[in-house]
Specification:
By secondary structure, the protein is α/β, with parallel strands linked by helices. 43% of the residues lie in helices and 14% in strands. The protein folds into 2 domains: 204 residues, 3-Layer(aba) Sandwich (Rossmann fold); 158 residues, Rossmann fold. One of its GO terms (molecular function) is UDP-glycosyltransferase activity.
Length: 377
């Protein structure tokens, strides 16, 4: 059987589908995967045959003629409309770049990663069964509406219902209005690096992971990252600052006992006592799967809503954007590090995630979809 995995967005949207694609391939099936051109190494390093689609990076859809990112509106409704329209254009470009592959290779199932609308467009065009993998966060309805409206303007009138919708977020911390579907355990994947002793052992100090996402650049989230580092600098901890290597070189002098660069999250997460991050879905789920308490400083207003159930569960603390002073963030981090209830809640959540069916267990579900599609063709 043939399976085409389609992703849209940055590494945070690509990495969650890698373990499932690997499981399908290990079961003896043919697998192709698609991601934007700059992200292809993430798939190739995972041993997956990959194709570039779209050819532009997500940020390029917002780049102005002077090379800077177009600012997003402050008004949430306007912001949702802009982001929704951008998402539609990314989906349309991805679709057009993959039409030839789908026509020539003819996959039995198309698997769409988080927010990969192009997978739905291809499924509708070719009548191929669709499976989706979603974080299980409550993507704003108005943003989805803006995406669908722009797609209709671009000539796409129909999005099929998936034959199978897999949801990664465990039910106990899933926000109201989030995707409904079949649960699948989140498995952390990161490009491998040579394992060094400091990665799996640590000093007596607490170990704190800091991340502002994989797409940090001079005009995107770098200020968020430096603010997190500044807030944590006075804590008596070891800091692991996870960021692309070229950004690490721009951070300047780091606090004592700090490391910065691209790090293997799946190796390091089990050794961490706290994670401070911007609210990316992969980061949140990876920390939850490893039993790591979290301090989340949402870099978009919607994320505060997404993660309130996680805070209510007791495995995280949220620091809203209007409260994220260094003093406040430092105090919240100290509270989570010293309060045993956060660790206990994180461990309970880890157990819940561990009990969910993993990617290998889901392969048979995808096989049944392929078989049904073949019979109805």
């Amino acid at each position: 059987m043939k399976f085409l995995f389609v992703s849209e967005g940055g590494a945070g949207s690509i990495l969650p589908i890698v373990p499932l694609a690997q499981a399908v391939r290990s079961a003896g099936h043919e697998v192709f995967a698609a991601a934007y051109a700059e992200a292809l190494p993430l798939l190739l390093e995972a041993g997956l045959p990959a194709v570039a689609a779209p050819r532009k990076a997500p940020r390029d859809y917002r780049v102005l003629r002077d090379g800077k990112l177009a600012p997003l509106p402050e008004d949430l409704e306007e912001r949702a409309a802009v982001l929704g329209a951008l998402g539609a254009r990314i989906a349309a470009d991805t679709y057009h770049d993959l039409v030839g592959l789908v026509r020539g290779w003819r996959p039995d199932v198309i698997v769409g990663g988080p927010l990969a609308v192009a997978a739905s467009l291809l499924s509708a065009e070719f009548g191929i069964p669709l499976a989706t993998v979603e974080f299980g966060m409550a993507e704003p309805r108005n943003r989805q509406d803006a995406t669908f409206e722009e797609l209709r303007r671009l000539g796409f009138a129909h999005l099929p219902t998936p034959a199978c919708g897999l949801v990664l977020c465990p039910e106990s911390v899933r926000p109201p209005g989030s995707a409904v579907g079949e649960p699948m355990r989140y498995v952390s994947y990161a490009p491998a690096k040579p394992v060094e002793p400091w990665m799996y052992t640590k000093e007596d100090l607490p170990r704190v992971w800091i991340s502002a996402g994989s797409r940090v650049s001079a005009d995107h989230a770098l200020d968020d990252l430096t603010a997190m580092i500044h807030a944590a600098a006075d804590l008596d901890v070891e800091l692991l600052i996870a960021t692309p290597d070229h950004i690490a070189a721009q951070l300047g002098p780091l606090p004592p006992k700090a490391r910065a660069g691209w790090m293997p999250f799946d190796v390091l997460a089990p050794t961490c006592d706290l994670a401070i991050h911007h609210g990316g879905g992969s980061t949140m789920l990876g920390c939850a799967a490893a039993g790591v308490p979290q301090v989340i400083i949402p870099h978009t207003p919607e994320f505060a809503t997404y993660y309130q159930p996680l805070a209510d569960y007791g495995a995280a603390k949220l620091v809203p954007a209007d409260e994220d002073t260094p003093t406040r963030v430092r105090a919240v981090c100290a509270e989570v590090l010293t309060g045993p209830t956060y660790r206990l809640a994180a461990v309970r959540l880890r157990a819940e995630i561990a009990a969910l069916p993993g990617p290998p267990a889901v392969v048979s579900r995808l096989e049944s979809i392929a078989a049904t599609g073949a019979r109805s063709a």
